[in-house]
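B., you asked whether I could sanity-check this one before it goes into the benchmark set. Here's the sequence:
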Amino acid sequence: MQKLVEIHFEGVEENKEYKNRIMQVLEKCFVEEKLKNLNLYISITLTTPNKIRELNKEYRNIDKETDVLSFPMFEKREIDEIIKNEQKLVIMETIGDIIISVQRVEEQAKEYGHSFERELSYMLVHGFYHLMGYDHIEEEDRKIMRPKEEKILSELNILR
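And here's what the prediction gave me:
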């Protein structure tokens, strides 16, 4: 069976429930976007606010903590071509990395009045679609990305 996700804990205690949620959400994403049997996987790192701030500063030149960072390995057109041609890669390749601040997820869950699991799931789906080449800066792009995110969460019955 193909490994879809590689999970790392950096400065955060390893947690089986987090792992299970990550696997559940990303498997749904892979199925939805027809990536499941193409020898692709995602690297997920759950970390601290300080570490995510360091990464944000180093790679985006923004000296500020954030909730999630995504580092894609393919351009959108490349991913689209792999999917269109059902091109199974010869060796396992990562679509990219998603780094999530667990403390930020906890804070935002309280702020938005929903569960930690819902907020973590949203961060995963949000990061996944960034890796797939989607964005939300422009309203036009947001109208494409948001429904994709909501469809995944809704189908998993992960509601606000």
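One thing to flag: DSSP finds six helices and four strands in the chain. Otherwise nothing jumped out at me.
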